Amino acid sequence: MRLSAVILSICTVAGVHARAIGEGEKGLTTRADIPTTFTWSSTGPLIFPKDDARQLAGIKDPTIVEINGTYHVFASTSQEAGYNLVYFNFTDFSRANSTQFYYLDQSPIGTGYRAAPEVFFFEPHGLWYLVYQNGNAAYSTNKDIADPAGWTAPQTFYSDRPKLISDNLEGGYWVDMWVICTSTDCYLFSSDDNGRLYRSQTTLANFPNGMSDPVIALQDSNKYNVFEASCVYHIGDGKYLLLVEAIGQSGDRYFRSWTSNSPAGNWTALAATEASPFAGASNVVFEGTPWTKSISHGELIRTQTDQTLTVNPCNMRFLYQGVDPTVDVSYNSLPWRLGLITQTNGSC
């Protein structure tokens, strides 16, 4: 997706750093008249595990930014033994699967459980942040997004798992950390697979330190309605879009959506049912035979890479994970693949 307003991009060779003036946040205006219903077209599966010594089952949970025509992707690697992270980049989706993978357990991020990344450029520090889960809410930093060996060792936003989350897990999992900042504050969202979305915050000046104790930002008595994989974006004019993955009646994944005037906000349902979702089997048309019934954990493609996560709500593209619905294996062994959906009613 391309921003409708004029964009100023600043690039440095060393950091492959692209910044765009933040619409709404930094004085420009952008249209925030997001549709109330959505339709999409989907590719087939574009990105697979490599046939290498890793013997991965799946590639999942992608985060993506586009810089000067190059797509930078971080994702989870999955297999029965557990999870870690991978980085790759490409310039053309049709050739995405031929790109070289760099497994981030070779970097200072290290081995062990790491999953569900989010990447953004934090302008006040001049650093890229990679946010992910490692049993806590973790992050690493890097001066150059294209240097996968340059990530720092994991640090965490909390000294330990917050009590509110521990008290509410009830057999769920604390997953899918997501950071977004305004001109004054940064917010950290996470989920518990039990129908609750949590939010913490700190000041922009103090980030990444000083995260407050979490509060419940959104919840549902049916845990499958607010399950996991939240994303929050600024869509201009001080308005925000929240996406949360849900599980439908047949067990297939889809995304619900809400809007608000603040990340701290009260959230108003937008396209939030299985019959009329933000993105799901009911409103995605596939090229050829549908290869998945689930539109699962993914992210909107961002061309503005800073901490405000500003996107244009028209002509959106969303990189997502899908899986062959006929496969019957344990969750860690599911053969997740990455596909791309493109909005077909983006006529803001």
UniProtKB/TrEMBL annotation:
Family: Belongs to the glycosyl hydrolase 62 family.
General function of this protein: Alpha-L-arabinofuranosidase involved in the hydrolysis of xylan, a major structural heterogeneous polysaccharide found in plant biomass representing the second most abundant polysaccharide in the biosphere, after cellulose.
EC top class named in words: hydrolase
Taxonomic lineage from the root: Eukaryota, Fungi, Dikarya, Ascomycota, Pezizomycotina
EC number(s) reported in the record: 3.2.1.55
PANTHER family reported in the protein's UniProt record: ALPHA-L-ARABINOFURANOSIDASE, ALPHA-L-ARABINOFURANOSIDASE AXHA-2-RELATED
Reaction(s) the record says it catalyses: Hydrolysis of terminal non-reducing alpha-L-arabinofuranoside residues in alpha-L-arabinosides
Tagged with keyword RNA-binding: no
Name the record gives this protein: Alpha-L-arabinofuranosidase
GO cellular component, one term: extracellular region
One term of GO molecular function: alpha-L-arabinofuranosidase activity
Localization of this protein: Secreted
Species whose genome carries this gene: Echria macrotheca
Keywords: Glycosidase, Hydrolase, Secreted, Signal
Biological process, per Gene Ontology: L-arabinose metabolic process; xylan catabolic process
A Pfam family reported for this protein in Swiss-Prot or TrEMBL: Glyco_hydro_62
InterPro entries the record matches: GH62_arabinosidase, Glyco_hydro_beta-prop_sf
Signal sequence segment: 1-18
